[in-house]
Amino acid sequence: MAQQVDLNEVRNRVMTNRQSGIDDPSSPNRAVFVDNGGNILTQPQPGQQRNLSRVPQKLFAATLMQDRQVVAHKLPANAQEMQISGVTGWVYEITSEVGDTYTMFIFNDGSLYQVMVLFPEVAGRYSPSEGHLFSNGCICLNEEHGYPTLEKAYAKSVLWATGFSFYVRTGQFPF
């Protein structure tokens, strides 16, 4: 049986890290760990850390709440929160600089924000190297295929829409 963890110490570490804006503290004296038996640890034995998982310190529901704030202030007024295939995200419509309308779904895939083009139907019709689209209809945003923030993914999707409008007309993606 694992040694009993001091839950007050766990709370203090998590709250101190959150207040400092630290999600993944590098110091073992500030981190909280879990082992493969589901036990929480604050004082791992020397050499034991490599077999432990470090606990992220962000609020559990903060991401969705923060995303809603970004959507309210940064996305088009037509953005609607929806669940598609069990994934929560926002459907929004934009018009490219050349007048083409796009309907997109922006969501967090668990690590990065992705944008899927719902209209026009582009899934499977263009290559990542030419149309900057994956076969599932998601835009190849990059920074390794997504962005760490909803705001950046949205901004890149707007630029992509105008670039794609030019690509469809000329065969060249301008950006």
Notes on the protein architecture:
By secondary structure, this protein is of the alpha+beta class. It has helices at 7-19, 62-74, 150-170, and strands spanning 33-34, 40-41, 53-54, 80-84, 87-95, 101-108, 113-119. The strands form two sheets. Strands 4-5-6-7 form a four-stranded antiparallel β-sheet, covered by helices on one side. A hairpin with a 2-residue loop joins strand 4 (80-84) and strand 5 (87-95). The longest helix has 21 residues, at 150-170. The protein is elongated, with a radius of gyration of 21 Å. The mean pLDDT is 89.
Give the distance, in angstroms, between the N- and C-terminal Cα atoms: 58 Å
Query: Strand portion, in percent?
Result: 15-25%
> In which range does the helix fraction lie?
25-40%
Categorize the overall geometry.
Answer: elongated
Helix and strand element order: HEEEHEEEEH
Radius of gyration: 21 Å
